[in-house]
Design brief:
- There is one protein chain.
- By secondary structure, the chain is an alpha+beta fold.
- The protein has one domain (2-118): Alpha-Beta Plaits.
- It has helices spanning 12-17, 20-27, 30-39, 90-97; strands spanning 2-11, 43-48, 56-61, 64-69, 77-87, 112-118.
- A four-stranded antiparallel sheet has the order 2-5-1-6. Strands 3-4 form a two-stranded antiparallel sheet.
- The longest helix is centred in the N-terminal third of the chain and has 10 residues, at 30-39.
Length: 127
Amino acid sequence: MKKFLCLGYYDAEKFAALSPEATQALVSQCPPRDAQLQATGRMLFAASLSEPQDRVSIRPRNGKPVVTDGPYAEAKEMVGGLFLIEAADITEAIAIASKHPAAELGEDVGWGIEILPFDHYIPGKAA
């Protein structure tokens, strides 16, 4: 099995502009879709991330780490969550990730998913 990191994106400004009723209508549709994703047995981990204003970044400056407020990159679309799945190949990863709420909902607030294949290793252990 291969591992895939899936990043869930959103437009923070558009999401914040939703009325409380519209926000509730959108997010109330998520639990059944989350359950479908979990039912695949291929999701290893999932998490929601903090709001952009609560994030910090570290970059090298003159050979030393410098901490700044905010996300690493200035962008309209922000990573709002992530999940890790196992799949035989990218085709299966797409089928699994498509069960996530951001694959079908929230088009007007920029929801979407990026699937990133990666090599999994544990430092100090043979592959």
